[in-house]
Design brief:
Elements: H1 2-10, H2 14-30, H3 37-62, H4 70-87, H5 92-116, H6 121-140, H7 151-158, E1 160-161, E2 165-166, H8 169-181, H9 183-194
Antiparallel strand pairs: 1-2
Helix pairs in contact: 3-8, 4-5, 4-6, 5-6
Amino acid sequence: MRGAGLRAAFSGAWPPLAALGCALLVFGAIAPRFLTLGNAFEILRASVEIGLLAVALTPILVTGGIDLSVGSVMGLAAVMFGLVSQQWGWGAGMAGGVALLVGVAAGALNAFLVARLAIPPLIVTLGTLSLFRGIAEGITEGAANYSGFSSTVLALGQGYLLGVVPAQFPILLLQGARTRDQGADVGCGRRARRT
């Protein structure tokens, strides 16, 4: 019985897993340092932002929605963080708060347009993708680059815990666990929406 469950779980997953295995073998043969633990953690560090976006987007997709603007919201929040901390001279905590407020405001705008005005989420988020990206480009004039952040900010964004684990990875794990725990509620909402 256990073998049947494993076969069912991996029945549609084997082609991507086989492709991943082939890619690992090829890259490992080409670059000797590719299959090292250090490189694995570096890839993990670079993937955390995408993972956090994927975790946040999962309940939306499970309930039949879509949000195309998440990358633009992240970009606008990052631009605001840089603007507030570098040009306005506010601390990292205040800049982080402003970035969070930008994300909340963007999400509230999308929610209002979808839930209250009944505009399809594909149309709304396609439009706000351009809106938020345009605002970010307007603030930076398409060229400004914010750098020179404090060591604390850099440690969170680029650092490693104990010199091995990316500093942002525990945040991804906690958010993933939180989303998994809320999964039963999302499933109930989806069933209720269909009836």
